[in-house]
Structures are given as C-alpha cells and as structure tokens.
Amino acid sequence: MDELSFSLKTLCTRSGEGSFGTRALRQRGLLAMAQDLKAMGYRLPDAWSIRGKHINALVSRWKTAGLSDQTVRNRLTWLRWWGYQVGKPGLLPKTNDTFGLAERGRFSGNKAKRLEGPALDRVTDRRVQLALKLEAAFGMRREEALKFRPQLADKGDCLVMKASWCKGGRSREIPLTHPKQRALLDEVKALVGDGSLIGQGRNYYQALKSYENQLVKAGISNAHGYRHAYAQWRYKQLTGWSCPAAGGPTVDRMTPAEADRDRDARMTVSHELGHGRLDVTDTYLGRRFAPRNREAA
C-alpha cells in the first residue's frame, strides 16, 4: 500500500461519520482515487497534499473513461468529505456546475406523500409508526429516524443530528417550527427514553428489516415521499407560496425580491435535508426555471 492510500485508510478508520456501509463504500472509493492519482503520475505523500489540480485531473480521467454524471457526482461527494477531513472545506466548489456535469435529479413529477391515518393504522409496530412520523415531520431519512436519539438531539428550538446518524456522515440542524413537531418528540422520548427507535437488544440492520417488513404488510410504498412533503411544506413556510412541484411559480414568474427569497428558501431546505446544494432541491420542489428558460438558468 502506497503512502497516500495508507493515509486515506487511516483517515477513514478514525472517522466515525456515517453508517458502516457508508464508511466502507467511502473508503473503497477513496482508495481507488489514490490509485487513479498514482496512475496519472501524482505521488502524494499523504491525504493533506490534495490540491485543486488533483481534483481536476481525477474528474477529467473519470469523464474520459465514460463514467456517468451520477457516478462522478457520487465520487465528488467523497472528495468533499476528504477535503473537509484535512481542513480544506473549500477544496471543491459547492456545486458541480464547474465540472460540466448534467443537472442532478431532474424533476420527474411530484413524489410528495402525506402520512395518512389509515396507513399508520396498518403499521402494528409502534417504533416503525414513530419512525414514519419523524420522516414526515422533520424530513428525516429512514436510517436517521431509526438511529435518532431525541434526548441527545433536542436542543429546544432545533434538532442537532449527529454525523453517525446521517447519510454521508453530514451532521445538520433541523429547526422546530410547529407545535406538532414538539408533540411528536415528546411521544418518541416517552417510548425510547435516552435510546433510539432501534430498541434494546437489536442492531440497526435488524430494526431496518422490521421497518421494511412492516411497510410491506401495511401496503406503504415510497415512504421517501414523506421527506418530499416535508421539503415542500418548509418551502411554503419560508416563502409564503407553494413550490413549482405543488403548482407554485417558477423563478421566471417572480420579482427579483421573490427570486432571492426562493433561492434562500431552497438552500435552507437543502441544508435541512442534509444536502447543502441548490440543484438538489429541484427533485423535491420542482425546477426553479420553466423548461423553456433552462438555458437562462
């Protein structure tokens, strides 16, 4: 193993960010990047030696090899993590536009779903019921809802989500803006105490299996739609109008002040969902610009 690979492996081993699967996938991806850099003649002594020219060389190599834009975007996520770990959070631009990648997650229809009472009634496991409620009320992913520990996260006016609960090891804050959110947290706390919805005597994978089985039996598909619904609710709360996915206006129909408000709201929603990029919000909220104005976007 060369010096860069050893350094990256050590960096990954010391970090507890993300689930076991996320950490393993990230490590494999970064070690493959180390081999790509070596093949291109870059012999970095350690992970801290990464520079912008190395990023550009990697992206160029991947695109020349014919990798899909989605695959390149995933690898850029690992590179952003690498930069953050070595104290270079600005190593990569915040968006992928610089690299000439196609738009991520183009809007393909409104996938938002409301969590209705009849669906919940068909779920017999109360822990799974509460996990679904957390997804709908806070935009959590299923893994986050199961691993979430309210006694640790609840700071009164917001939830501080630990990196180890979140996809990609990205911690974040989710504000409490509605009384129903507080009532739900109290309900979860009453059941789990200082624990999580995984429950004692089970690990995450066992809890996930139970979650999946319960949803199949209840006839619930695409629970991720509850997260979409949260995003749309928060957007309307922040702007005062519905998002394009729910019939609201696109930016080309807004005043400059409204367009600024739209952008700020989308960035807020993106951060609360655990992304942090503007382009991601098209998937949840609908395109910012009408299709005929895409070039202007």
What does the model show?
This protein is mainly α. The protein has 13 helices and two strands; from the N terminus they run ααααααααββααααα. The radius of gyration is 21 Å and the shape is globular. The termini are far apart. The C terminus is likely disordered.
How is the topology of this model organized?
Elements: H1 3-14, H2 20-39, H3 52-64, H4 69-85, H5 117-121, H6 126-138, H7 142-147, H8 150-153, E1 158-161, E2 172-175, H9 179-192, H10 204-218, H11 224-239, H12 256-273, H13 281-285
Antiparallel strand pairs: 1-2
Task: Provide a compact summary of the structure.
The protein is mainly alpha-helical and 297 residues long.
What keyword list fits this structure?
297 residues; Topoisomerase I, Chain A, domain 3; 3 domains; 13 helices; disordered C terminus; Putative_integrase_N; DNA recombination
Residue fraction in strands:
under 5%
* Category by helix and strand content: mainly alpha
- Domains, number: 3
Helix content, binned percent? 40-55%
Bulk shape: globular
How many helices in DSSP terms? 13
Distance between the termini: 45 Å
Largest sheet: 2 strands, antiparallel
Output the helix-strand order: HHHHHHHHEEHHHHH
Strand order of the largest sheet: 1-2
Note the quaternary state here.
single chain
Poorly predicted regions are 293-297
The gyration radius over C-alpha positions equals 21 Å
Mean pLDDT: 90
Number of separate strands: 2
